[in-house]
């Protein structure tokens, strides 16, 4: 997954460089004015598993956007190996708990290259910080039934990332974001694999942003 993340980052950087050259050749025109508010969903694909989220963004200035987002994703141990038995069932040796991360982050997007890029590509840097709920469920119980015995732990976390929004629509928001999440758990930690207690979590996520602007 780290190799995939690196490839994605290189592709994104190449796209930014190419779009910047196009912007330098294009004649100057007044910047597009987009609605101040946006809301939508995040589809997350990462080292630790898949995730879903939601976000709200508010334009603060031409280059600065404030946001709040909430997501849920599985956090698998990097040493986990999933096996498939003769009947097609999947299982992981020595796994004690499934671990899920639910971060609530406040942060900012800082838009890049506003003077040289066209509005079709709007790259930005972003960073968020906030509380994270770490939820564990017993692995030896069926997935949905296990939430009846879920245990919640509290942590501090956040993420940093680079991304871009695409298109000139004033109604729909489409973007992509590569983020690195970091989480530090308070207390004794959680046991994902037998004998492996985790207090710190770090994962890369490729996040697709789909929403509306108003």
* Main sheet characteristics: 8 strands, antiparallel, barrel
Using only CA atoms, what is the Rg?
Answer: 20 Å
Shape: elongated
Mean pLDDT: 85
Instruction: Give the end-to-end Cα distance, rounded to a whole number of Å.
Output: 35 Å
Q: Largest beta sheet: what is the strand line-up?
A: 1-2-3-6-7-8-9-12
Helix content: 10-25%
Question: What structural class is derived from the secondary structure elements?
Answer: mainly beta
User: How would you spell out the order of helices and strands?
Assistant: HEEEEEEEEEEEE
| Total helical segments | 1
Q: Strand content of the residues, in percent?
A: over 45%
Record field, number of beta strands: 12
Unreliable spans are none
Describe the 3D structure.
This protein is mainly beta and 214 residues long. Helix content is 11%, strand content 57%. It is built from one helix and twelve strands. The chain has one helix at residues 2-25; strands at residues 37-46, 49-59, 64-74, 82-84, 90-92, 97-111, 121-138, 151-166, 172-185, 190-193, 196-198, 200-213. The strands form three sheets. An eight-stranded antiparallel β-barrel has the order 1-2-3-6-7-8-9-12. The model has no long low-confidence stretch (mean pLDDT 85).
């Amino acid at each position: 997954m780290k190799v995939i993340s690196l490839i994605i980052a290189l592709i994104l950087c190449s796209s930014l460089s190419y779009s910047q050259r196009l912007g330098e050749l294009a004649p100057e025109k007044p910047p597009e004015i987009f609605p101040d508010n946006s809301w939508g969903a995040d589809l997350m694909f990462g080292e630790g598993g898949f995730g879903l989220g939601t976000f709200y963004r508010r334009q603060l200035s031409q280059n600065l956007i404030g946001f709040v987002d909430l997501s849920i994703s599985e956090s698998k141990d990097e040493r986990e190996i999933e096996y498939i038995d003769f009947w097609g069932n999947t299982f992981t040796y020595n796994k004690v708990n499934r671990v899920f991360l639910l971060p609530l982050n406040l942060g900012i997007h800082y838009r890049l290259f506003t003077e040289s890029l066209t509005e079709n590509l709007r790259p930005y840097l972003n960073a968020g910080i906030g509380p994270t709920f770490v939820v564990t469920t017993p692995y030896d119980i069926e997935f949905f039934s296990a939430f009846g015995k879920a245990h919640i732990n509290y942590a501090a976390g956040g993420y940093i990332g680079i991304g871009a929004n695409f298109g000139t629509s004033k109604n729909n928001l489409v973007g992509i974001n590569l983020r690195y999440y970091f989480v530090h758990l308070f207390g004794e930690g959680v046991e994902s694999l037998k004998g492996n207690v985790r207090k710190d979590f770090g994962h890369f996520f490729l996040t697709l942003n789909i929403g509306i602007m108003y």
